[in-house]
Design goal:
By secondary structure, this protein is mainly alpha-helical. The protein has helices at residues 2-7, 18-26, 28-42, 50-81.
């Protein structure tokens, strides 16, 4: 499963190739798993997790509007080119 390598499930993504480490740093799953690991294994409190929570909120603030914009652009393009044909 390639997502294991990207999010660092088996090992930290820092140990991977340069391309995978960049993909891991850009993936919110990496930070979510890191926060869960620190909470469950190290007993980290919510205040200890504030930097991770901040990163996740910032990623969401950027990625959610970007994904909505990209989907809207692709949908409008497909409609304009007639690629969304309904049958039945």
């Amino acid at each position: 499963m390639p997502e294991r390598a990207v999010v660092g499930l088996g090992r930290g993504f820092e140990e991977c190739d340069n391309e995978l480490s960049l993909a891991g740093a850009a993936s919110p799953l990496t930070y979510a798993l890191d926060g869960m690991r620190r909470s469950l294994l190290d007993g980290a409190r919510v205040t200890d997790q504030l930097p991770t929570i901040g990163i996740l909120l910032a990623m969401g603030a950027v990625m959610i509007p970007a994904s909505i914009w990209i989907f809207s652009w692709a949908e409008n393009r497909a409609k304009r080119l007639g690629l969304l044909k309904r049958s039945g």
